[in-house]
Amino acid sequence: MQPSDNQLFKLFVIEDNRTESMLLQLALSEIKHLHIQTFSTAGQLLEHLSEQPDIVLVDLILPDMSGVELIKKIRAFNPHIRVVVVSAQRDMDVLAEVQALGVFNYLVKSEMCLTYLHQVISELIILLQHYRTQKV
What we know:
The protein has five helices and five strands. The protein is of the alpha/beta class.
C-alpha cells in the first residue's frame, strides 16, 4: 500500500557533482515516506520551490549561487522548510553564518557523512510526522 500524499515528505537535494548527487540519493532512498528530487543548480531548485519541499539538502559551493544565498532565499520563501547542509566547507565563519540562518543540521562531507545523513533525515522525518499529527 502506498502512503498518501499527506504521509509523503518531499526532499530536494542540490548537488552539482553528479556522483555525489547519486550517492546522496542512494543513501536516502531507503527512508520510508520520502520523495527525493535532485537539482544541479540553485536556479533549478528555486524554480521548483513552489512545490513546497519539506526538507532541502544544500551544498554550499554551487555553480550559479552561493549556498548561503540559496538558504536565505529558501528561508524567505518559506521559513518552515527544514534546511540541512552537506558541504566540504569547514570554515568556522561560514558555519556560524549558516547556523545563524536557522539550518536544521550541518554535515561536513566525509567517509561517515552518508551514514550520519541517513540518521539525520530519518529523525527529521519522525519530527515532521509528529508536527503533522499535531496539526490534525
